Amino acid sequence: MYNRISIIGGSGSGKSTLATLLSKELQIPAIHLDSINFNENWTEIDKNERDKIISEKSKADKWIIDGNYNKTLKERLDKADLIIWLDYSTFALLKGIFKRYINLHNKERAEIPGCKERLNFSFIKYVATYNKTKRLKLIQILKDIPKEKILTFKNQKDLNKWLIDFTNNKNILKSIN
Asked: What order do you get walking across the sheet with 30-32 strand by strand?
């Protein structure tokens, strides 16, 4: 069984949702990196302070951490027993952020207390260009990680099938649909 699971991928891929599902199923605490990075009303904390907190939390014996945050990513991936990479298309990522916005518009996100869901042009642009810019950095970091630790999913359908098989729980997806 896995004690440390790192979930990485672009915005809108469902990292936080997956972390929450696995946390409940495996009884391992979920750590949402966005909740460390953002205080109320999307106010970012100091990046050095954020990275110290992330590094400290990654020293725990058990965790499911969702998020990239490249400065501490290699350290977390080295410690992880399992890395789940949600390597989705740009279309899927954009669909994910728009779906989240429609479902949570002006509502607080459970994994980021004090932050109401929002959508602006700079975030849409970030997601639209993620696979051409940020994804390449992930590939560089992942090339030094043992391949047997990495599960890569290209779409939600394959992830859902794996989730059902991995947890042996046919009802696991009902809590998100």
From this structure: 30-32, 63-66, 4-9, 82-86, 150-153
